[in-house]
Amino acid sequence: MADSPVTITTPGSDDAASAGPSPQEQKQMEQAYAQMKRKMSMEEIGRNIKHKIMVLSGKGGVGKSTVSTGLALSLAQQGYAVGILDIDITGPNVPKMMGLDGRRLHVENKRIHPAQGHLGVKVISMAFLLEDEDTPVVWRGPIKLGAIQQFIGDVEWGELDYLVIDFPPGTSDEPLTVAQSLPDIDGMVIVTTPQQVALLDSRKSITFSESLKVPVIGVVENMSGFTVSGTASPGSEFSVAAPGGKTITTSADGEGNFSFTLDIFKEGGGKSTAEEFGVPFLGALPFDPGFVRGGDDGVHRIVSEPDGPSAVAFSKVVAAILDQLSDGSDGGLEII
Ligand SMILES: Nc1ncnc2c1ncn2[C@@H]1O[C@H](COP(=O)(O)OP(=O)(O)OP(=O)(O)O)[C@@H](O)[C@H]1O
Ligand SMILES: [Mg+2]
Prior knowledge:
CATH topology of the largest domain: Rossmann fold
Structural class: alpha/beta
Distance between the termini: 61 Å
Bound molecules: adenosine-5'-triphosphate, magnesium ion
Helix content: 25-40%
Shape: elongated
Number of domains: 2
CATH superfamily of the largest domain: P-loop containing nucleotide triphosphate hydrolases
Number of helices: 11
Number of strands: 14
Order of helices and strands: HHEHEHEEEEHEHEHEEEEEHEHHH
Low-confidence stretches: 1-11, 329-336
């Protein structure tokens, strides 16, 4: 009697066993399995990508996407393996800036493969999901965030040195979703312009980083100044009426070359915001109409003029970022 297995029969238990899980239970099991697989895949992505950098701003149109693509291309110029993840569903324009307009995603074995843009930079964008670029996706909050999670988990990035993540403007749910999904994000780069209103908003982003528990790598001031250069009689001196009622006096050198920078908006705002919050100032990027042209014709400024002043300014910002990443203890805002 002690050796015999105990069988407990309850009314209807035979039927229940043979019927298997209900469609609802089946669906729940599938969902749990998919979620587990996604989590494992996020962890693998976390391991295969050495550094992950978020690019944020409080205000729209300050140049996040220009800066994200510029940072990625500048890193690629230096020989790093780089990817860009464009999270902006409503107005994704990274593919256009990377010469990948109209591309569709390549899916193999249920994994999404990034497109390769300029300088071999791998690009994943929500734009690749759009039927038509003029029809923005309007997804309700939870669906949008679920799509982002799934999207991140299903991408086959391979091994990367840097992944730059571009966001829509503002302190919205997207950065939170990404920060919670992708392990070991190094930190965020905050883009601002010298104007007062953009600076106010970038202060919001710095505070926002605390709730995300992602450190601030530093602040970049975009559209900082416009450099005018030309030739005149060697040694001649002249003055220029600059914005804000200022007068700039300059002179041509012995060969007749001159150059001066106009502060179109204001100057030094990014630096003072960084100082106020005790976060690093990563540098200033000039106002360069070539960025606008690049956005339209799909050839980024760094590609069309790899040694030009804008590419040089980007390489300085990249050097400052790498400096912060190599020395986390001495840099950005530490958030515990
Ligand atoms: N340094 C710059 N000099 C001149 N134009 C610039 C510069 N940076 C960005 N722009 C232009 O400003 C516009 C907005 O830039 P961008 O799309 O990068 O901003 P964004 O912050 O990503 O915008 P959004 O908030 O809509 O995502 C674009 O037309 C871009 O070409
Ligand atoms: Mg953008």
